[in-house]
Amino acid sequence: MMSLKYDYLSAEEKEKVHDLEAKVQHAEDDKALKRYTTEITLIYEKARVRQETSHS
Fold this sequence. Notes:
Elements: H1 11-25, H2 30-54
Helix pairs in contact: 1-2
């Protein structure tokens, strides 16, 4: 799954990703699965952009 760990995720973001990964494992349908994985991706992307802009 998307269990890659990034140093630039905040503690809150790491917790949210962990919770969403658990929901992915028990998603009731494809729509829920897509929603959870999209949220995970957005968290990682926001953190990546924040990290990249802080080093500019």
